[in-house]
Amino acid sequence: MKKLKVLGLAAIAAGMVTLTSCLDSGGNKQTLQSYAIVDYSSTMRKLIYPLGYYPLYIPAVANDVNYNPGDCVIANYTVDFDSPDNANASTNGFYVASGAASSALPKYNFSFSESDSTALEGEVLLSGAESVLMMSANYQRIIAEPIFESILTDQKNDYRLMFDYDQEPATVNSTERVYTLYLRCQKLTDGKAPTLSNAKDAAIFDAGQFYSTLKSRESAAGKKVASYQVKYAKSFNSDSTKVMTWGVSNISQFSIAESE
């Protein structure tokens, strides 16, 4: 097998994707790992919608009652494009794959509210953050990856994502009409040794209303994509009562063009 590429949120402003091509044995297969949304197709077949990839029918997921529409998971799967099961993929609207998925990732609170510099109770500083807006047939989800310079193993956190509905988009690094969200992190329970360095977590947010809002505004402005960035608390003042420095993610974009 020849490893082609590894893409993460920092590389494509979107989830964890590992792409492997197995062509040396005569097959035409791809083995991947990525974030995905569980959802039903128009024919009521339970599929997963991986980030930046085709909708997939994975029997192990489709036949498991523990997976519900709207769940976000980390899926591992192999697609055999030469399989008879995939001969009519274009007509079916999905590929059949083998594989499995994690349990549903936890969802956190998304609110249309302003974020001020007052430190939250138990707020945890972040050293970085990236995010992507994912879509399936019926759902929109933001997947954020907060990054910690150091954190104890198994520390439990709560996350909030805030969007000021009344804000005007700004030009950021030559990208026009960029909206800003704020990601805040609060510690719920202490972790244990060892301490992890440059650790990432995955935080899922329901983004249906956010998607509809930006789609309406940016379509009215004649745009085909919407752009946003995420700010996060990077340092406190001397008594840790206010956020002194806000870090900022890469700009994320998603299409708002209607399918033809």
UniProtKB/TrEMBL annotation:
<dbReference type="Pfam" id="PF22221">
    <property type="entry name" value="NigD_N-like"/>
</dbReference>
<feature type="signal peptide">
    <location>
        <begin position="1"/>
        <end position="21"/>
    </location>
</feature>
<dbReference type="InterPro" id="IPR053994">
    <property type="entry name" value="NigD-like_OB"/>
</dbReference>
<protein>
    <recommendedName>
        <fullName>NigD-like OB domain-containing protein</fullName>
    </recommendedName>
</protein>
<feature type="domain" description="NigD-like OB">
    <location>
        <begin position="26"/>
        <end position="101"/>
    </location>
</feature>
<keyword id="KW-0732">Signal</keyword>
